[in-house]
Design brief:
Order of helices and strands of chain A: EHEHHEHEHE
Number of helices of chain A: 5
Oligomer: homotrimer
Largest sheet of chain A: 5 strands, parallel
Structural class of chain A: alpha/beta
Number of strands of chain A: 5
Shape of chain A: globular
Chain lengths: ~130, ~130, ~130
């Protein structure tokens, strides 16, 4: 058993990145291989010069009249991803089309990103197991 | 067969909660077990004192120049979740990390929430079947 | 093997529609059947009179102080969906509940939409393989 979990990581706010990181770490702790394809606004958040910045919260968290919890700025998603990689078989890949779209060079990405690949290559490793879009 | 469907319910707007509820009810009607992990803004919406409030719509629904349909305020997602639980094997669990993050006590949640659990415990029940992030 | 990929396409911004289209095209290229249920704001974007319009970008792309890439307006998602249909076994279905909610008639939808169906009928075809909510 132990089907891999494939995650298409699209969203770039701290809360969704944190939710993704905890799923990845939880799956790694259960000995499931995890493949993450980082694209669009998530990829932007994985830039070395931006990864430690505040990336905001999802739309519904910041509506008028809504005060996000004080802990909002303290979601350590990047560190959780790094720990997940030490814990199990976690591969973090940058989406080639998004690299071009955002005009990002591989050297600009955090070292936890393993390589760059296309969607078809990513889906080849997802022939079994769930595909999660976040 | 009849693999379970595992849903990580993150979003807290009425349209996404409604979309989630109809997937849960549809799966229950087809005799598939459903496990829902309610976290972040969805968990906030499951608070007893907020569940019947207006939780707004997704970002793209409320852009300038866009008028959401009049039926927008009338999406009965909470009731659909309750009916799904009567229809089949549906478990609704509150994410322990989100409980802490949002400073919510179990007694503040709608009774349809069965218990509190962590992501690893949730993923243990998702060793087969799809994992859906909403 | 070759489990189908089932996609619940909810979001109506160009970046998410593009992300969905490339997953569909990639899966079709790998000979996997793909079933797409188009609902809510995605369904609105599939209206014949709106499909070629600018549908904006996700929330985090347009925050103050953030300039989306110049290529933002040029994501050819509709064409990518059409090519995916020629490439493989791709079925695009409109969600019946969303049709009613948005007051849309089948004749108002782009011809690439094959038919209208309910969530239970859609989930029947998803008894194996991943379910992806976008």
């Amino acid at each position: 058993m132990n089907d891999p979990i494939s995650i298409v990581l699209f969203s770039g706010t701290d809360d969704k990145l944190h939710a993704a990181a905890t799923i990845v770490a939880g799956a790694a702790a259960l000995d499931r291989p995890v493949n993450v394809l980082v694209q669009f606004w998530a990829l932007d958040a994985f830039r070395t010069d931006r990864i430690d910045q505040d990336h905001g919260l999802a739309f519904e968290a910041v509506r008028p009249g809504r005060t996000p919890p004080a802990k909002a700025g303290a979601l350590p998603w990047a560190e959780t991803f790094r720990q997940a990689k030490q814990l199990g078989e976690v591969r973090i890949r940058a989406c080639s089309a998004s690299m071009e779209y955002l005009d990002i060079d591989p050297s600009q990405l955090d070292p936890m990103v393993d390589d760059v690949c296309g969607i078809a290559s990513f889906l080849l490793d997802a022939d079994t197991g769930p595909v999660v879009f976040i």
